[in-house]
Amino acid sequence: QNDSGTAFAHMDRAVALQPDDMGAQMYRASLLYRLGRLDDAIVGYTRVLEKADDALKLRAYIERGLAKEQKQDFVSAADDYTAALMIEKGSVSALSRRGDCLERMGKHEEAIADFTHLLEIVPAEQTSLIYFNRARSYRALGQLDEAVADYTHALAHTSDVLPIYIERSISYRLMDRNEEALLDVERALAIDPKNADLLNLRAIEKIKLNDIHGALADLNAAITLDAANAAFFANRAGVLENMGEKAKAIDDYTAAL
Predict the structure, then answer these.
(1) From 26, 67, 214, 228, which residue has the greatest number of CB atoms within 10 Å?
(2) Contact 209, 182 (CB under 8 A)
(3) Per-residue pLDDT in tens (0 to 9) along the chain, 257 residues
(4) Of 161, 159, 153, which Cα lies nearest the Cα of 130?
(5) At a CB cut-off of 8 Å and minimum separation 6, what does 101 contact?
(6) Burial call 54-81: b when 16+ CB within 10 Å, e when fewer
(7) Is residue 152 a contact partner of residue 184, using CB atoms and an 8 Å limit?
(8) To 10 degrees, the CA torsion angle through 148, 149, 150, 151?
(9) 84 to 34, 65, 98, 102, 206: CA distances (angstroms)
(10) What span, in angstroms and rounded, lies between the C-alpha atoms of 37 and 152?
């Protein structure tokens, strides 16, 4: 950040000497963004958009959208990405970022349309995150078969499989495909065996499959790893109650409060 600050000081002087140099203005706005001065960066990008050519406007819209996302202003950010797409309708960056914003805004049908367009123009080896994001929107809409299919496609194109297994297991659970949900949690735990949240998830799946003793073992392990998580105690209390261990269940319900 010190290097960026020094570069910004030099650039600020250059811009003062040549205020109509949009390339310099763009560089200045980008530095402000990197320094975390988001409001100033947005003002800078807006200044560029007033006079720049289309190539520079495309970049300014996208970067201004990124700054707005940092400020949690997803509606305005999506508008900037739409403006960028008016300049270059096949902009991968603009489509990807707009899709993410639309998903965060709960506009899942529109997000799916953007992610689908991306899948038509992006090389297969770069599609894992796109499939993953589209799957999340499908799941939010209750289109669980489509979600599972996309999670499965995402697994084929990445080594970062842990979050995909977790998300796909949730979809399987919502479909009452509990054996498959359990298998995905098992796969996730093989990657991260000391993850208390995953142990809790596996316990939930085991409860659904009537493996009460297995669920208790997982919840005991989860609580050993994270004794501050009330949900783990509440889940174990339910298991203990089911086993007839009412006194122990009461202790866990109390711990969960």
Answers:
(1) 67
(2) yes
(3) 556 556 666 666 666 556 678 888 999 999 999 999 999 999 999 999 999 999 999 999 999 999 999 999 999 999 999 999 999 999 999 999 999 999 999 999 999 999 999 999 999 999 999 999 999 999 999 999 999 999 999 999 888 899 999 999 999 999 999 999 999 999 999 999 999 999 999 999 999 999 999 999 999 999 999 999 999 999 999 999 999 999 999 999 999 99
(4) 153
(5) 65, 69, 74, 75, 77, 78, 81
(6) eebbbbbbbbbbbbbbeeebbeebbbbb
(7) no
(8) 50
(9) 21, 10, 10, 15, 48
(10) 40
Per-position DSSP letters for the chain, written without gaps between them: -HHHHHHHHHHHHHHHH-TT-HHHHHHHHHHHHHTT-HHHHHHHHHHHHHH--HHHHHHHHHHHHHHHHHTT-HHHHHHHHHHHHHH-TT-HHHHHHHHHHHHHTT-HHHHHHHHHHHHHHS-GGG-HHHHHHHHHHHHHTT-HHHHHHHHHHHHTT-S--HHHHHHHHHHHHHTT-HHHHHHHHHHHHHH-TT-HHHHHHHHHHHHHTT-HHHHHHHHHHHHHH-TT-HHHHHHHHHHHHHTT-HHHHHHHHHHH-
Length of the chain: 257
Q: Which of 210, 211, 216 is nearest to 238 (CA)?
A: 216
